[in-house]
Sequence to fold (146 residues):
Amino acid sequence: MFEKSELSDLAGALLRGLQVPKKNKNYARIAEYSATIFGLSIHSMPQERFHENADKIMIFFRGFVNFCGSAVGLSDDESIEAFEVFFVEITGLPRGDAAMTFSVMDRMAKTQEGIALVKAGERAAFQCQEGRTSKAIAALGKALGH
Fold:
């Protein structure tokens, strides 16, 4: 299980990763939902399971960040950039290593399984936006088949 400080760090990383123009009033609400669901989704997951499924979890949250980015008016390219920042912050990898890993993950996200995980992440973000947090929290485990 993750400690509260780790969850706080992870939530903060998502909030920093989704920087959009300050004039967008939906940004704070959607980013807060995203960070909350990310933290709650992995909080109930044993660390071993998290590590075994880290790539899949990150692809799932790529969809989550894409949906949130779209909801606050980011273009597809800007959402990808936001996810790259999120990924670097979450993993703690140096930028060079993260870029290589992100490149591999980008290819994985284009496979049939990856596309399904991205779509599951987008649906979870929608559930979150609609206030159905329990469904959004459960979505990651469901997407991983657990």
